Description:
The structure is a homodimer of 335-residue chains. Chain A is of the alpha/beta class and 335 residues long. Chain A has three domains: 4-47, 434 Repressor (Amino-terminal Domain), CATH 1.10.260.40; 61-158 and 294-320, 3-Layer(aba) Sandwich (Rossmann fold), CATH 3.40.50.2300; 160-292, Rossmann fold (3-Layer(aba) Sandwich). In chain A, 47% of the residues lie in helices and 17% in strands. Chain A has helices at 4-11, 15-23, 30-43, 49-56, 74-90, 105-113, 130-137, 160-173, 186-190, 194-210, 223-236, 248-260, 277-282, 294-309, and strands at residues 61-66, 94-99, 118-121, 140-144, 154-158, 178-182, 213-217, 242-245, 270-275, 288-291, 317-320, 324-325. The first copy, chain A, has a six-stranded parallel beta sheet, with helices on both faces. Chain A has a six-stranded mixed beta sheet with strand order 7-6-8-9-10-12, with helices on both faces. In chain A, strand 9 (270-275), helix 13 (277-282) and strand 10 form a beta-alpha-beta unit. In chain A, helix 1 crosses helix 2 (15-23), helix 6 packs parallel to helix 7 (130-137) and helix 8 (160-173) runs parallel beside helix 10 (194-210). The longest helix of chain A is centred in the first third of the chain and has 17 residues, at 74-90. The termini of chain A are far apart. The mean pLDDT of chain A is 94. The interface between A and B is large, with 54 and 54 residues. Chain A binds a DNA duplex (30 and 30 nucleotides) through residues 1, 3-5, 13-17, 19-20, 23, 25-29, 32, 47-48, 50-57.
Amino acid sequence: MVTLAEVAQHAGVSASTVSYVLSGKRSISATTRERVEHSIQQLGYHPNAGARALASSRSNIIALMVPLRTDMYVPVMMEIAIAVATTARTHGYDVLLLTGEEGPAAVRRIAGSSLADAMILMDVELHDERLPLLRESGHTAVLIGLPADRTGLTCVDLDFEATGALCVDHLAGLGHRDIAVIGEAAAVYERHTGFAERTVDGIRAKAQEANVRVLHRPCEGGYAAMAGTLARIFDERPGTTGFVVQNEAAVEPLLNLLQQQGRAVPEDVSVVAVCPEQVATQASVRLTSVAIPAQEMGRRAVEQVVAKLAGRGSDEVELLEPVLTVRASTGPAPS
Amino acid sequence: MVTLAEVAQHAGVSASTVSYVLSGKRSISATTRERVEHSIQQLGYHPNAGARALASSRSNIIALMVPLRTDMYVPVMMEIAIAVATTARTHGYDVLLLTGEEGPAAVRRIAGSSLADAMILMDVELHDERLPLLRESGHTAVLIGLPADRTGLTCVDLDFEATGALCVDHLAGLGHRDIAVIGEAAAVYERHTGFAERTVDGIRAKAQEANVRVLHRPCEGGYAAMAGTLARIFDERPGTTGFVVQNEAAVEPLLNLLQQQGRAVPEDVSVVAVCPEQVATQASVRLTSVAIPAQEMGRRAVEQVVAKLAGRGSDEVELLEPVLTVRASTGPAPS
DNA sequence: GCACAGGGTCGAAGCGCTTCGACTGGCGCC
DNA sequence: GGCGCCAGTCGAAGCGCTTCGACCCTGTGC
C-alpha cells in the first residue's frame, strides 16, 4: 500500500502539504498541487480509511438501520436504502448496513465506536426503543418516519395523514359514501408503526369531514388473507364502493378477487392505493394511487444528515407532500 | 469518549493488558480479566473503530456491492443483503453497502483505502468489468453468481442449470411436450447475467434429453408485457401446456391472464416458477416452484469470506442444490 | 539448590493520517 | 525603506489501538 509519506517524498514536499492538497484546507500553489496530484496518480495512492478516521475523528460513513421485518413491503425499503447509498456517495460518504436484528444495542455500538459519523433510522415506531439511546449518545441522526416524541430529532417522511385524507377526498368527490380501508398486517399496528396509524388517522378525519363511512381492516399480504378480509368487509358493509389499499402486497389479490366476484373496477367499485408508482402502473388495472416517494425520502434523509454534520443542521420534521395520480381504478360511485 | 488508556488506568493495569483481555491473544489471569472487564462495563468503553483498523490493518467490515438495476427482482436482492448483514454480524463484521452506481471504480476505492477487509459482489455478469480489478487488487472477495472465468475466485450461487433441468424434468414427467419459458427482461440477457443464461441452458439440455419442445421468450414484468408475450407464445405454439417462469414479476400476470383466457391451472396448463418461497405460496394459485435460496446464498457468501480471511480459504465454486416443491400449479398434461 | 520453562504483565514502537503553530519570502503600503 | 501581512510550506505532535520483545515470578525436574 502506498502511503502519504511516499507520495510526499515522490513529489518532493512534506507530508502535511500532500494532506492539504487532498483536503483543500489550506491554500497550495498551483505548481505544487500539480506535482502532488501527479505523484498521487502515478503511485496509485489511496488514503487509508482507518488512519484518516483516527486522525480526523470522521469516518465518512453513515449507518443505515433497516428493519428486517418480513411484514414490511420490501421494495420500498430497498429503494430507500439504494437512494441513501447513492446520495451518500455523492457527498463523499459510504453507508453501513445495519439490520434490525441487533436492536437498540446497535445504536450504542455505532455511537461508541465512532464507526459512523451519523445514523439514519428506518421503520421508526411511535415509541421506538432506539430513540432514548440516540438522544443520550448525542450522535447525529435522521429518522425516516415519525416517532411520538421528536424533540431534538430530525425526521423525514411522507405526510401520511395528508395521504389518507387525499385518498378519501378523491373517493368522496366521486360520490362514494362507504369506504373500506385495507390496512397493513395486524403486527404493523401492534408495534405502533407511525405511518400506518397516521394514514388511518388522516382517513378518519377526512371521512368525518366529508360525511363518509369508513371500515378499517388490517390485512396480511397474499390471496388467502385478502379473500377472508374482503368477505368480511362486504358482509358487514354490503354497500361498500370504495377501497383504500395501504398494503401493497394486497393490491393484486384484491383486484383479482373483485374481478372473480364480478365486481368491475372502476364501474362497481373504486380502488385507491398507497404504493410506489411502479406497483400502480404495473397492476392488472392501472391504479389511481398516492405514490410513496421512496427515493426522495432516502435522498432527503442523507441531505439532512450531511447538513447536520456540516453544522447547518435543523431539528425539523420534513414532511413530503403526497401526490395523488388518477388512473384507471377509480370512477364515480354507482348510483 | 472513553479510551483504552482510561480503562487501563481505572483497572490498574497497562494498556496492552486491556488490549489482550479484549482480543484474547495472550493469556490473562482470571482476576485481572475480571478487573478489566469490570472497568470496561463501568466506564462504558467501546474500542474506537478507526484506531483499531489502523493498528491492526483490519477494519472488520465487508463491502457488499449490490446492483441498482431496476429490472432485477428486488426482494431477492434485499433478502440476500439482509442475510449478508446479519450473518456478518455473527462473525463480528459490519457490512458496507455499495451500489452499482459507482461501477468498477468502487472496487479500486475500497481495495485501495482498506476500508473493507473483503468484498461480496452480487449480480455478477459473465464478463464482469469488476473482476480484472478485483484480481489485480488481490483483495479477498466472494461472488454471488458465476462469471465465465472464475480462476482465483470464490463463487456462491444456486445451481441454475440444475434448476432449469429440474423444472423441465417435472413437466416432462407429467406428460407435457410443449413448454414455454417466460424469461427475464431482455436487458438481463443482453448484459449476459450468468444465472439467466444458465437456467435456459439447463432447460434446453434437459428438454432435448426428454424430447420436449421449448420456446424461450424474455419478458418484462407487468401485465401489458405479459399479455403480449403470452399471445405470441400461443400463436406460435398453440399446443403449449407447460410454463416455466423465471421472472417473478411475471408470475401473477401470467396466472391472471391464463385465468381470463379460460385456461385452467393446472388442468389445462401447468406452471412452474423459479422464485422465492413466499412468492410461490402467496400467489393466486399455490405454485409448484424451485426456491431461490436467497438467505442461504447470503449466508454462505459471508461464511466463505470469513473462512478466507482466517486463511482457511478455498477458491471454489459452491453451487447450491435446487429443490423443487410441488404445489397446486402443475398437473398431468391434458390428453 | 539451581536452571529452566512458561504464564502473566508491561513498555514502547509504530499504524498513516490530520492539524496546529511556526517559519519564510514576497508584496503592498505608509 | 521598513513594516506588517498573507500565501505557501514544513515539522512535530498526536489520534487510540495492536503487537513485539522483554521482564518477572512461580513452579518443576533433576
